[in-house]
């Protein structure tokens, strides 16, 4: 187990390369289960703990997986079982994305309930509603969800009550092998949905409308492996954009796609941050200080991403004036607030809105990453703070950022990873066995 120690106040400079998107590669790996012939090769697969976990899920199903130098070779021809165990699914919620492909290909699937993570209850009712509309019978028992279909899934018209990213992906994957046409209405529009649809189409699927509110999937009989390069991670890119602004530095974010980051770019520009776009990435720098306070409300894409809310809050702490940050996607995504308060931040939470008073000097402190993006935000706040900040709980951060301390250090930050000396009793709880969320049955 390790911790990250940051001494604040350093300027950053240079270029940082953005890795492939975690939230794109996870469904793409799950979709590879649909390959009934040939193998898939997925390039720009980021070396993250989450990627290792979903690879293990596939291996546990009898699939051959080889992961080398950010490319994954997957051969699912001999897919054997249709059960994903609690041991793996509890480690990462996105493991539930194997449900759709397994049901489509094997006619049944038995997956442990993913439960709700620290940021909210995160039910899966919309995934199940979609499978049921396609003719599946769903049963819940002993912490597992079992879905079955006699013969093939049937195309259906499915209106999602919330534009859920995971439900859109799971239903879209299941529908590729269904008999007839499926329409997903009020579908999520995130760039990761479009990347998944592109991959499925390369496998032989017929999907139109991904990236809009209505996705049409004309079912086909068979899919085969395909070669695909994952899109750059817009949340990793956004995090480094904030690193540049919060330290008054000048950074080039290599690989960032401006069109995927429009709401983040526009909010940062409103604050007074300079952003230049070209075809290879973004240059982010500041010319005027202090930055201006702005209000931010998270929304499904193309709104401001909830996965950037905590990092944006860190930046707003350094702005002049009071900002309102409203979280509408997850009901419990302000856990970084208490940790930031330990760093002298002045934030008051009122329901779904945090009132952030900017301009108060942040002080280094001992803090804990309670979830992935909360952890990233604490690192950002620490870069701007006076003195040393010690961040524990970094197994959360390693789920979604490739070598964050090493990348920031190469840009000039005073940041290092240090082993944590564990007491004998604590050694029994190794980081990779620590659940990332509390498992609780949350069907609806
Ligand atoms: C691996 C991955 O891609 N994770 C992303 C994905 O998570 P994930 O796919 O889990 O998020 P969803 O879009 O499904 O969740 C959005 C909202 O819908 C609700 N909901 C969802 C499903 C459902 O069946 N019923 C329901 O009520 C959730 O509780 C939440 O309030 O999108 C989130 C929203 O952009 C991001 O924060 C996560 O980083
Ligand atoms: C919440 C996130 O991921 P996940 O859905 O995998 O928990 C995230 O990437 O910020």
UniProtKB/TrEMBL annotation:
It holds the Pfam family EPSP_synthase. It is an enzyme of class 2 (transferase). The keyword Mitochondrion does not apply. It comes from Paenibacillus validus. Phosphoenolpyruvate binds at residues 22-23. The active site is at residue 117. Its main location: cytoplasm. InterPro entries: Enolpyruvate_Tfrase_dom, Enolpyruvate_Tfrase_sf, MurA_subfamily, RNA3'P_cycl/enolpyr_Trfase_a/b, UDP_GlcNAc_COvinyl_MurA. This is UDP-N-acetylglucosamine 1-carboxyvinyltransferase. The lineage of its organism: Bacteria, Bacillati, Bacillota, Bacilli, Bacillales.
